[in-house]
Write a structure and sequence with these properties.
The structure holds two protein chains of two kinds. Chain A is α/β, with parallel strands linked by helices. In chain A, 34% of the residues lie in helices and 18% in strands. Chain A has a five-stranded mixed beta sheet with strand order 2-1-3-5-4. The longest helix of chain A has 19 residues. The radius of gyration of chain A is 15 Å and the shape is globular. Chain B is globular and about 65 Å long. By secondary structure, chain B is of the alpha+beta class. Helix content of chain B is 45%, strand content 19%. In chain B, strand 2 and strand 3 form a beta hairpin. The chains are: A alpha/beta, B alpha+beta. Chains A and B meet through helix 3 and helix 4 of A and helix 4, helix 5, helix 6 and helix 15 of B.
Chain lengths: 160, 432
């Protein structure tokens, strides 16, 4: 589980989701044995190294999605990301890191991107709609893990 | 009849920093009539932004100037301010500053070699394309870059825009166990650093001897990093206070970044300038590996910068291991600072070269005036000089695509922040 973010406004939502996940008791029971969580500050190419050895990676990141209300959660696959034509050190983002990991043969068998549409990057805090999306994102991850036999006990995910 | 063509190479996109630029090239009758590396990124006004700020805020503000080399900006700033206040730091603080700087050199150099420079020399569009054919080399580069980041994190709290540095020292001292475990990891990476140096020396680098002036810090006891006198291979030998007496920053109409000149002439800063001037102070192990490559320093081939960068990674790794092995917990990770009116200048060696700062602090203990001269602006005039010589050497009659590729490679070789954008060079040709 990788939360990608920066301290700027809604760009920090990747961190906030993973931190909220780590606060769940069911996550703590799995942590270190079957799942690992990482927070990254614009990891660049280093993300390729971080994914090495993982069978499945979920990457949580803020997304700039035009015409999409802030806080909208969307699952994406790596091939849905468009690469910059030729990445530079400053522009080496998640898409480029995944492409590099793929070339190096160290891309996990399964990679899912959980994106949350961002609204603003100016303040230090999350905007209200993006903050409201954090618990929803945690639930979505819980459901994805449960479908693979990991994750929250059925009762907890059932809302009791 | 003379053939005239105007070649315009554009760099339209840049993510951050001193980035948006273009190369304008006018060739008439096979000769370069005009050559301008234009930087039209809006000025960022960091110096103005610092005015009125408390001195304690300065390290965190200047760290934002560059995402790749924030430590360099912090190091020049804290030293200059401490000089203004007449403060001397402890040997522990001095050692830890050298350690965090080693981390930045390793991280920044590894990134440049593998993501930017190596694809040029091996004929790939990007590191991603190169990784298919050179997976082990790229993995090795990423490992080294990661270790550099780990060193920065140990003292800075995080690797991007680290927050551990303060005027007077560091906010926290790392735990002894953390220092020891990092030392062991770095030692295990020494074969990687040696192999990287040998690999870069085997790159099919163009042979392009040019005359240029090298400028770097020189320190009597160590390879320069955070302290020393400013020297050149033309006999310059001054302290940071006297920088403005010999170096001038000029506005040129085609660039929003200032051009710098030494006694009215372009000059080079960065890894090649440092190795050319200070190779004797590299550890014996690095000198031996360098000697075995058959490349001799001082070198007049600008493309040997990539070899110099690899040599500095090897050096920084050895230095970090030495400093971590000698690590002890300090009584305090900082010395107390009482901001007062004063003025101080300092220069350190950023990965890309000399980084000079001067601050004037007012009676209220706040920054009254600041001046920052980054390596990229110092190298700008030299890059233009190199482009002119280099394009004339290969022959301006080549087609536009060939000229563009060569110009990109020349520019990127300096590792300027605009190297980010030069991958996007676009060529518009007007034939008259």
């Amino acid at each position: 589980m990788v939360g990608v973010g920066s301290p700027f406004g809604d760009d920090r939502v990747g961190w906030e989701v993973v931190e909220a996940l780590e606060a769940q008791s069911w996550w703590r029971e799995l942590a270190g044995r079957r799942v690992n969580a990482h927070l990254c500050d614009r990891p660049g190419a280093a993300l390729a190294g971080l994914l090495q050895g993982a069978g499945w990676a979920i990457i949580v990141d803020a997304a700039h999605l035009p015409d999409t209300p802030p806080g909208t959660i969307r699952w994406l696959q790596p091939d849905q990301l468009s690469l910059l034509r030729a990445p530079s050190s400053h522009g080496f983002g998640v898409a480029e890191a995944l492409a590099l990991a793929n070339e190096l043969g160290q891309l996990p068998r399964r990679v899912d991107l959980l994106t949350i549409a961002a609204g603003q990057f100016a303040s230090a805090e999350l905007s209200a709609p993006v903050r409201a999306a954090v618990p929803e994102a945690v639930s979505a991850i819980g459901r994805a893990l449960l479908a693979q036999g990991l994750g929250p006990p059925a009762a907890a995910s059932g809302g009791s | 009849m003379s053939e005239s063509r105007t070649v315009r190479i554009e760099v339209p996109v840049l993510a951050r920093v001193e980035g948006e630029g273009a190369l304008d090239l006018t060739i008439t009758g096979g000769r370069i009539e005009d050559l301008r590396l234009r930087i039209f990124e809006p000025p960022r006004f960091f110096e103005k932004l610092l005015e009125g700020r408390a001195c304690a805020e300065v390290p965190d503000i200047v760290a934002r100037i560059c995402g790749i080399c924030p430590v360099a900006y912090q190091m020049s700033a804290v030293h200059a301010l401490e000089r203004a206040f007449g403060v001397t730091v402890t040997p522990w603080i001095r050692a830890m500053r050298r350690l965090i700087y080693c981390g930045e050199w390793i991280e920044s150099h590894a990134l440049h070699i593998h993501l930017l420079a190596a694809p040029d020399f091996h004929g790939y569009d990007s590191a991603i394309a190169m990784a298919r054919d050179y997976p082990d080399e790229v993995r090795r580069g990423l490992r080294l870059q990661g270790l550099g980041n780990e060193i920065i994190r140990l003292l800075g709290g995080r690797s991007v825009h680290p927050v551990g540095v303060r005027v007077g020292g560091f906010h926290h001292a790392p735990a002894l166990a953390a220092a020891q475990s990092l030392a062991a990891k770095l030692e295990a990476a020494l074969p990687d650093a040696r192999e990287l140096l040998r690999w870069t020396a085997r790159f099919p680098l163009p042979a392009d001897e040019q005359a240029f002036t090298c400028v770097a810090l020189r320190h009597p006891d160590e390879y320069p990093m955070a302290a020393g006198r400013i020297v050149s291979d033309g006999g310059l030998d001054i302290d940071a206070d006297s920088y403005e007496s010999r170096f001038r920053e000029l506005h040129v109409p085609h660039s929003t970044a200032l051009h710098a000149q030494l006694d009215g002439e372009p000059y080079l800063v960065g890894p090649l300038a440092r190795v050319n001037l200070c190779a004797a102070q590299l550890p014996r192990e690095v000198r031996d590996t360098l000697a075995s490559t058959g490349i001799h320093f001082p070198s007049r081939n600008m493309f040997h910068s990539v070899v110099a960068r690899a040599a500095e990674i090897h050096h920084a790794l050895l230095e970090a291991i030495r400093l971590l092995k000698a690590y002890t917990l300090p009584d305090s990770p900082f010395v107390p600072i009482e901001p007062r009116a004063g003025e101080g200048a300092w220069a350190t060696e950023a990965p890309r070269g000399l980084l000079w700062h001067r601050y004037r602090v007012g009676e209220d203990g706040r920054v009254a005036w600041a001046r920052i001269v980054p390596p990229t602006s110092q190298n700008q005039a030299r890059i233009e000089q190199d482009l002119r010589a280099s394009i004339e050497r290969i022959g301006a009659q080549h087609d536009d695509a060939h000229l563009r590729r060569h110009a990109e490679m020349v520019i990127r070789n300096y590792d300027p922040c605009i190297s980010c954008a030069t991958h996007f060079l676009r060529l518009n040709v007007t034939r008259v």
